[in-house]
């Protein structure tokens, strides 16, 4: 029985996926040559590919630039007051809204910079905040 179980487990986890995995690996290595990945330890490679899972939200606040706003403008102060009170999951949801991902890229939060921009519309109460995820810009109406 033990031999049967060992053979069956080997088939399910190794033999049955060998060809699809080899095809995947060939395509992956074409775009990402293995010699470049060997410089990373496994935990470092995971961080590079997945991003950071732990955050220092105060550092995020320090790395913001403001366009048509000042750090002491009422809208900005209110934004950060509300943000600080959010639970961790809601802060991650904001990060996903802003950047398209709920994680910080591998370089770390100290290098993650975004802008808060006043869209300067005539009736700011009639538009919602929006984001440009490619440029890391939050358009926050007054």
Automatic annotation (TrEMBL):
Q: Is Transferase included in the keywords of this UniProt record?
A: yes
Q: Name one GO biological process term.
A: protein polyubiquitination
Q: Which residues form the HECT domain?
A: 1-142
**InterPro entries per the UniProt record, alphabetical:** E3A/B/C-like, HECT_dom, Hect_E3_ubiquitin_ligase
Q: Which reaction does it catalyse?
A: S-ubiquitinyl-[E2 ubiquitin-conjugating enzyme]-L-cysteine + [acceptor protein]-L-lysine = [E2 ubiquitin-conjugating enzyme]-L-cysteine + N(6)-ubiquitinyl-[acceptor protein]-L-lysine
Query: Domain of life of the organism in this record?
Result: Eukaryota
Q: Where is the active site?
A: 134
Q: What GO molecular function terms would the record report?
A: ubiquitin protein ligase activity
Pfam family for this entry, one: HECT
Q: Which UniProt keywords apply?
A: Transferase, Ubl conjugation pathway
Enzyme Commission designation: 2.3.2.26
Identify the PANTHER family for this entry: HECT-TYPE E3 UBIQUITIN TRANSFERASE (PTHR45700:SF8), UBIQUITIN-PROTEIN LIGASE E3C (PTHR45700)
Q: What is this protein called?
A: HECT-type E3 ubiquitin transferase
